[in-house]
């Protein structure tokens, strides 16, 4: 029996289409199975900063109990550098399977991308926001030798010596840098900026008296404040905090735009399937109900947030715009 070319082509096309459909269904089924079985191996949470800082503390506070909720170990890995952008870039490039997550901060998703055109990711489109774990107040503190014991005295001292004092930050483009620049815009004060490779080294030099002023998050600086090796002057928080009831908020001082807290949340790469997002969100929210976990986080000065993926995405977008505006107004560039 002879088969015409046209008949052969029709049969081949029909079989090819059927095979393609079957293959597609197979892949779809495999993908759905992988999502329903998630996680089937350990999950990594990448902290884009060195160990010991606030981001690391919060990640490690939830890692073990989150692993118990998910049924697989959750391992924290540190990859610092570039104000958090090196680790964040790696997290953005990860497969969208939920096995490499990252802790997102204001520095990685707002301030650094706002000032650095070479950041290798778009903070609004290259991540899948899952949950904001906690928010921490930021604080202006000085070495005890600084000639000011209150915020008002601090302003007078800096006004008397324009650019005569320097402040330390965790790095150019980080939240400490841009929030201090926002503070300078609101107050008209002039100070030099000395960037460090992380909040730890910045904190160490201020405590040692090498630099007189520090803008930092509260969890890492609080132990030095309570031991009187740092003097707090003003805090970015919704209200005065119990640990430092004598310290006024930026809002009280008429500096509402600078009254911004840092956030620490979990994100995945873009395209993370909704069932995986929901599973991680639900497990993390459950962990944050644990009194032991809550106490460990709150003892640092942080406040539990536990918002929805949509709320966290909106928060990132709003914060990014704030720092885009600061960079433009202050005409800031990478140093």
Automatic annotation (TrEMBL):
Domain of life where this protein originates: Bacteria
Source species of the chain: Vandammella animalimorsus
The family this protein is said to belong to: Belongs to the UPF0065 (bug) family.
Name recorded for this polypeptide: ABC transporter substrate-binding protein
This protein's UniProt keywords: Signal
Leader sequence segment: 1-34
Pfam families: TctC (PF03401)
Keyword rRNA-binding listed: no
Organismal lineage: Bacteria, Pseudomonadati, Pseudomonadota, Betaproteobacteria, Burkholderiales
């Amino acid at each position: 029996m002879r088969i015409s070319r046209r008949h052969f082509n029709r049969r081949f096309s029909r079989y090819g289409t059927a095979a393609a459909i079957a293959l597609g269904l197979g892949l779809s089924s495999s993908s759905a199975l992988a999502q329903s079985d998630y996680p089937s191996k350990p999950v990594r949470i990448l902290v884009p900063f060195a160990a010991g800082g606030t981001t690391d503390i919060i990640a490690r506070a939830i890692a073990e109990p989150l692993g118990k909720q998910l049924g697989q170990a959750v391992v924290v890995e540190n990859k610092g550098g570039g104000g958090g952008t090196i680790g964040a870039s790696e997290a953005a490039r990860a497969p969208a399977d939920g096995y490499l997550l990252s802790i997102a901060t204001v520095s990685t998703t707002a301030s650094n991308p706002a000032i650095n055109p070479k950041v290798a990711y778009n903070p609004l489109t290259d991540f899948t926001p899952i949950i904001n774990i906690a928010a921490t107040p930021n604080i202006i503190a000085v070495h005890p030798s600084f000639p000011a014991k209150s915020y008002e005295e601090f302003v007078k001292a800096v006004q008397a010596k324009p650019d005569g004092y320097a402040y330390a930050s965790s790095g150019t483009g980080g939240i400490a840098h841009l929030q201090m620049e926002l503070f300078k815009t609101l107050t008209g004060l002039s100070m030099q900026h000395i960037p460090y490779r992380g909040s730890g080294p910045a904190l160490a030099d201020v405590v040692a008296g090498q630099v007189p002023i520090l803008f930092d998050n509260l969890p890492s600086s609080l132990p030095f404040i309570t031991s009187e090796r740092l003097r707090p002057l003003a805090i970015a928080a919704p209200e005065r905090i119990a640990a430092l009831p004598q310290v006024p908020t930026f809002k009280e001082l008429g500096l509402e735009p600078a009254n911004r807290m840092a956030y620490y949340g979990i994100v995945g790469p873009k395209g993370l399937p909704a069932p995986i997002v929901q599973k991680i969100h639900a497990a993390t929210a459950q962990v944050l109900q644990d009194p032991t976990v809550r106490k460990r986080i709150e003892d640092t000065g942080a406040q539990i947030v536990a918002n929805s993926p949509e709320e966290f995405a909106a928060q990132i977008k709003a914060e990014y715009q704030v720092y885009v505006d600061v960079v433009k107004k202050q005409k800031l560039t990478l140093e």
